[in-house]
Amino acid sequence: MGFLNWELRGRSAANGVAALLASVAAVALSAPAAHAQQATQPAGEQTDQSKQADQEKAAPASATLLDKILVISRTGETAIESLASASHVDQEQLARRMATTPNEMLLGVPGVATQADARRVSTSINIRGLQDFGRVAVIVDGARQDFQRSDHGTQSTFYIDPELVKSVDVIRGPVANTYGSGAIGGVVFFDTKDAADFLKPEETWSASVTGRYESNGKGWTTSATGARRFNENWDALGNIVYRNYDNYKDGGGDTANGTGFDVLSGLLKTSIRPTESSELKLGWVGSSDGWDETSGGVTVNDVDLKSNTFTARYNITDEDKSWLDLHINTSYNKTNLDLTSLVPQRRFDPITGLPTVLPAGSQSTFDVGTTGIDLWNTSRFETGGVAHELTYGGDWAGDNVRTGGTAGGDSFYTPSGKRDVSGAYIQDKLTWDWLEVIAGLRYDNYSLKDSTRETSGDRLSPRITIGVSPFESAGLAGLQFYGTYAEGYRSPSLTETLISGNHPAGVTFPFLPNPNLRPETGKTAEFGVNYKRNDIFESGDALRVKAAYFHNNVDDYIDGVTLSPFAPGSGCPFGPGIPICFQYQNFAQAKIDGFELEGVYDAGWGYAGLSASITNGHTISYKGVEADLATIPSSQVTAQLGLRFLEDKLTVGGEVQYNGKPKGNAVAEDYTLVNAFASYQATDNLKVDFRADNLFDVKYANPLNGSTTVVVYEPGITLKLAATMRFGG
Predict the structure, then answer these.
(1) CA atoms within 13 A of residue 686's CA, in its CB half-sphere
(2) Residue 545 to residue 543: CA distance in whole angstroms
(3) With 80 as the cut, is the pLDDT of residue 666 above it?
(4) Of 4-18, 525-539, 590-604, where does mean pLDDT reach its minimum?
(5) Radius of gyration of the chain (CA)
(6) For residues 637 and 612, what is the distance between their CA atoms, to the nearest angstrom?
């Protein structure tokens, strides 16, 4: 499978920009003069916010990130309260990072790495050495992102502009089995912005405009936002973002061809509160992109991509949020990618294996639609002095993959078909004084099929967590220990199971389907420590620390293998012109273990943070042969420091990140990155941000790209300057 270098070809987006700006203006900027009204809090957040308010009475006003309620939590926990490896990235931190691409939003989150192609717009997330084909559930406003276009490099990617995102929550490991099937690596939840994030209490409308310039790639980002409060129970938001970037230079000063991009993204969202105890959120997030692909320095393909996500989320509670806390989420995500050949290309017919020519103008199409339903309820009650949070629910997601085009085109690598995954679960969180126990059980079922084959399976997966807070003294009262054993279940993907035919590019060889492919089962044991303490060195300061060791056995791990036609029983046919065959097969196990640390100290004058992750892993065949696992990321240590001045109007600081070479990786080396940032709130309506990434111009490659045929070095020194103007009334 020839790995394609990417080169963006700028194209006109004027019509799309005008249409989206008109939508934003219609929603947000046509506000008549009216008295400002105070917005009520969404019912689904009332208990969480009151809980957080109680915490902040004892914590500093700028409570640390680990004190923030996890959007992804179904029992209203903060990260520091969670008996799991959980992290939260809030809007302030996202703004400080000035992220251009999704991977930059996750900087320094322990146990999390990203892989992107040269263009960097699409991203695959790696958690604890597991990625692709649904091992990590990526969710945007409750909608699963299951798009796939298989080739060398990233297999499963998603599209979201950082400018549209309010917060990111991460739960590592299969303990997140209430969030859908397959997430044996973990879950990443992107929550987009709401009108309440822009509107001040006394305002009925607001608007903002942001302009940003980046030195490396001479890139521009423009963003416009409008928010409108129609009454105390109804508000709406529109956001449009346009980015235009040329090729960047790596740390060695060399231009990385094909790394420019030109993308238009938008967001429309409304929140309706029919009663004081219910809320309905309707949303759309979309992206339109166009670029050229090059191979060997020649432009060969024209690509158009459109991604649209539609969501509806409803929450209703009883007055005390005791027996009823019901959530109903529905979603539909559709990604269409059309690839048109610009020049004739020499290929092989995927059926016969004979040489053929892919004529100019021929097309390959990739259409992936994912429909999802997710509903759950949490009941809170006490029995014999023990508090219960009983959560029970179910979910279903259906992938409909349609690919096609001229024989010998790239759509061959991603077969058409349908996959359905569903599940039901029950989980009880019991709390008694110093003891906390979480017990859960999930049932998963899947089926996948194309026009000729069908396969299915199901399984029960347990979870048990025990947490203790054994100390009462002032210095140790916030110390908590926990241990977890959890299992997760991932069904094979359509590509892994059904891909069939002859490799069409470069050299031809057969792909063998494997309808007998068994699902993966992740079995994780984790031991962790949470610690929180206030008023350590001065009144109002706070220290929060989370640390964990994990060991994950993935039974029946799926990976691609090459087969020899000379090996008896390989299934690879013997014949002229057949050097090898390729097939996805089960391994006995993938063994992955590691350590993660996340800590932050926050005081009025500033903050300091430290995160670290060390991950090791290998596969073991059924014959006992060990091999390096190519998806093991760098071990990392990230230190952050921020200082506040001028009554918190000015924040300056920096980040230092060390990355260690994974064992057996062909492209990686040890490297250290240094970043700096400054943010100045000049007036209530003007904010200026500055950032310098890779300050010492280090030349480095992402180790996750070691499986590709072309090494793409990451950007060298990049200076970013942005200004945001805000209006409201």
Answers:
(1) 2
(2) 7
(3) no
(4) 4-18
(5) 25
(6) 4
Please tell me the distance from the alpha carbon of residue 426 to that of residue 428, in angstroms, as a whole number. Answer: 7
Q: 404: helix, coil or strand?
A: strand
Edge-to-edge order in the sheet of strand 165-172: 85-89, 165-172, 186-192, 136-140, 143-144
Would the pLDDT of 17 be above 70? Answer: no
- At residue 53, the pLDDT reads 38
Q: Which amino acid is at 159?
A: Y
pLDDT > 60? residue 48: no
Res 297: pLDDT? 64
For CA atoms 126, 128, 133, 135, the dihedral sign is: negative
Reply yes or no on whether the pLDDT at 153 is more than 70: no
Say which DSSP state 706 is in.
G
**Nearest of 344, 452, 453, 451 to residue 408 by alpha carbon:** 344
| Total-model pTM | 0.89
By DSSP bridging, strand 581-586 and strand 558-563 are: antiparallel
- pLDDT tens for residues 113-126? 998 765 667 789 99
Residue 417: left if φ>0, alpha if ψ -120 to 50, beta else—which one? left
Q: How confident is the model at residue 292 (pLDDT cuts 50, 70, 90)?
A: confident
The residue written with tokens 């990233």 in the block is 154
Distance between CA atoms of 324 and 44, rounded to whole angstroms? Answer: 11
Tokens of 685: 């309506």
Distance separating alpha carbons of residues 247 and 255, to the nearest angstrom: 7
Q: For residues 427 and 463, is the Cβ–Cβ distance under 8 A? A: yes
Q: Half-sphere exposure of 463 toward its Cβ, with a 13 Å CA cutoff?
A: 28
Beta bridge partners of 206: 227, 728
Helices (H), 282-430: none
The contacts of residue 616 (CB under 8 Å, 6+ apart) are 592, 593, 594, 632, 663
Q: What is the mean pLDDT of the chain?
A: 86
